[in-house]
Amino acid sequence: MSSCLIPCLTYACQTWKYTDKIKRKIRTCQRGLERSMLKIRKIDKIRHTEIRSITRATDALEHALKQKWKWAGHVARLSDERWTLRVTRWKGPSGKRHRGRPLTRWTDDITKVAGSGWLQSAQNRESWNSLEEAFTRGGVLTN
């Protein structure tokens, strides 16, 4: 599970924006994979916590969020002006925006944990790594 399925499930997860819908899909997919491995049907009414204790698999959502946090720190520490850093700093077009709720951006969940100056705070690896657990635990849903 940890060597094959979790990496396939979280491929390129560093670039995803984690909405509640995406988080729920990752959790649901992993739980389905675990039930399939153990040949447990939903009608058997076995809680996911019991199944997880049997499989001892790493949580796919935590793994994905950890990868995103590491990638964000790497991008922030880039010394040259690569397009990845330029796109990360880009604020979008100026002017009037469309009606409705603004779309979630890639940096929104990082900004919630590290603050608006996360690009500068990522320069210090020790303080950046200390915030990693807060970021990955922020992705845990109650269901």
From TrEMBL:
Taxonomy of the source species: Eukaryota, Metazoa, Ecdysozoa, Arthropoda, Hexapoda
Name of the protein: Endonuclease-reverse transcriptase
Species the sequence originates in: Euphydryas editha (Edith's checkerspot)
PANTHER family noted in UniProt: REVERSE TRANSCRIPTASE DOMAIN-CONTAINING PROTEIN, REVERSE TRANSCRIPTASE-LIKE PROTEIN WITH RNA-DIRECTED DNA POLYMERASE DOMAIN
